[in-house]
Design a protein that fits this description.
- The chain is built from ten helices and ten strands.
- The protein is α/β, with parallel strands linked by helices.
- The protein has two domains: 1-79 and 170-253, Rossmann fold; 91-169, no CATH class.
- The longest helix has 19 residues, at 119-137.
- It is globular.
């Protein structure tokens, strides 16, 4: 079943088309990578999927519903969550509190229960804290619950941001360069973790510059260059695609 279908998506900033007429689809349970040189339009594409930018043209259909131009806070309730290229944790909140923030979009407490701190409110808070600790344990951060996010090592902050996105129980998880700044051992551990998410039924769209990770983990790959889709296919097809090679290395490579 198609979980995400993007049709002729365009994003123009004045006379510059950062993304130009992109069509794209994802099936449930796939890991898809979106690659391309710097400035290719990858993060702009993510920003349209998550409501940060309203597309100039085209449509985004998610889980059978047209969500084009939907506000970010509604996008996450529809079931799309993301991480960012530059880490955007709440640095002066604890690790546990950061994950609990991710859970708020799924909260069943209404205004009354939240304002008056009813028994129902505290029961849900207790359940959420338990679930948050379970999620943190999957990335070896359970023992860091009470530490401030700013005090974590870089690789730990990356893992925390992924867990915070997962806390929203997304149907589609968008990862924007999750391996950026990681050493080879951390990248290998991240690869195993992402595979584990897929084994549990997750659908993941990935922007990544680490080609070793991309080629090993992706079911399919889309390649952008200057806002245009220049290739799509399996890893072996992309590795031997002359347009892709020229986009990264220049003509004559």
């Amino acid at each position: 079943m198609k979980l995400l279908e993007v049709n002729n998506l365009t994003m123009a900033f004045g006379g510059l088309k950062a993304v130009n007429n992109i069509s794209f689809h994802m099936e449930e349970g796939e890991i898809i990578s979106l690659i391309g040189p710097n400035g290719a339009g990858k993060t702009t594409f993510f920003n349209m999927l998550t409501g940060i930018y309203i597309p100039t043209e085209g449509s985004i259909v998610f889980n059978g519903k047209n969500i084009t131009g939907t506000a970010p806070e509604k996008i996450i309730k529809e079931g799309i969550a993301r991480t960012f290229q530059n880490i955007r944790l709440f640095p002066h909140m604890t690790v546990l509190e950061n994950v609990l923030v991710g859970m708020h979009s799924r909260s069943h407490n209404g205004l009354f229960h939240s304002l008056f701190r009813t028994k129902k409110f505290y029961q849900e808070e207790k359940r959420n804290a338990y679930k948050a600790k379970e999620l943190l344990a999957t990335v070896n951060l359970a023992d860091k619950c009470n530490e401030y996010a700013k005090n974590l090592a870089y690789g730990q902050q990356r893992r925390l941001e992924i867990v915070r996105a997962l806390a929203a129980q997304p149907k589609l998880l968008l990862l924007d360069e999750p391996a950026a700044g990681m050493n080879p051992q951390e990248t290998e551990a991240l690869m195993k973790y992402i595979r584990g998410l897929k084994d549990k039924g997750a659908t993941i769209l990935l922007i990544e510059h680490d080609m070793k990770l991309v080629m090993k983990i992706s079911d399919r790959i889309y390649v952008l260059d200057h806002g245009v889709k220049i290739a799509e296919g399996l890893s072996k097809d992309i590795q031997n695609n002359q347009d892709v090679i020229e986009a990264y290395l220049g003509k004559g490579a």
